[in-house]
Amino acid sequence: MSAVLVLMVFFTVAIWETFAPNHPPRPGQHRRWIRSASFHVIGLLVSGLCVPIAASTVVDWAQLHRIGLFNQLQLPTVLAALLGVVLLDFGDYVTHRAMHAVPVLWRFHRVHHSDLDVDCATDLLHHPVEILIGIALYFAQLLLWGLPYESVLVFALLGILSSPWQHGNLKLPVGIQRYLRWVLVTPEMHRVHHSSAAIDGNRNFSAIFPWWDSWFGTYAKAPIDGWSALRFGLAERQNAGDVTFFKLLFEPLGVMPWLRFDRRFFRR
Ligand SMILES: [Zn+2]
Ligand SMILES: [Zn+2]
What we know:
Blueprint: H1 2-19, H2 29-50, H3 55-64, H4 69-73, H5 77-101, H6 103-113, H7 128-145, H8 149-167, H9 174-180, H10 187-193, H11 198-201, H12 211-215, H13 245-250
Helix pairs in contact: 1-8, 2-7, 5-6, 5-7, 5-8
The protein binds zinc ion (ZN) (2 copies).
C-alpha cells in the first residue's frame, strides 16, 4: 500500500515538473535519472539486507520494555502522536546538520548534493551508507522518545509526500509559496540548500516543517547571489563526468584507487 502511495506521489511530481518546470532542465536528463534510480534500487537492496527489522518492531520493543520518555509519561495517544511527529522532524533537522558538519557523514551525504540539477530524481540520489546511518539514527530516536506507532505512521506519510515535493522542479505562484513556507518546506526553500555556494548549502536543512531553520538561524529566503546566478551541485564538481554513478558510489568508500582520487571530495 505504501509503495503504491510512494509511486503515485513521485510520478505526480514528475509529471507536474515536466509540464510546468521552474527552470529549464539541464541536458543529459536521462543519464541523471538512470543514475539516481540505480542509487535508489541499491539503497533499497542494502537497507533490506542490512536492516531486517521495521520501525514498528522497534516501537513494539520499546513499549514492551517501557523504554523512552513517552513510554514513561503515558500521555494521551493523540497528544503523544502529534508531539512525536514534531520531535521526529526535529531529529531529521539535527541529523541533516550533522551530515554537513561531521566530515565522515558529509563524505556520504555530499553524493545527494552532487546532482547538477534538482528535480524529483534528486530525491532518489542518496548513498546507501547514508541511508543506513539515517535508519540507525531514526531507530535511536524511536528508542530515546518511546514514540507511539501513530507517530511513525504519520511521519512516514508526511515524508512520502514532502520528499519528492521539495525536490520537484515545480513552479508555484509567489503568493502561495509565501504562505506555504510558514508551515511546509517548499521546493524553493530546498533549492537554496542544493546551491553550489557553500553558504547556501548550509541553509534550509529542515525536512518537513520549516520552523527549525527560522528558530536556529539557518533559514535563507533566496540564494546568496540571487536566483538568476543559482547553480546546483558541488562547486568543485560542475562537470557531468565528475559525478558519474561509479564515482559517486565508490569514491566515498575510498575503494577506487584506479580512479583519479580527489581529496576535495571529502571536504566541504
Ligand atoms: Zn544536505
Ligand atoms: Zn535534497
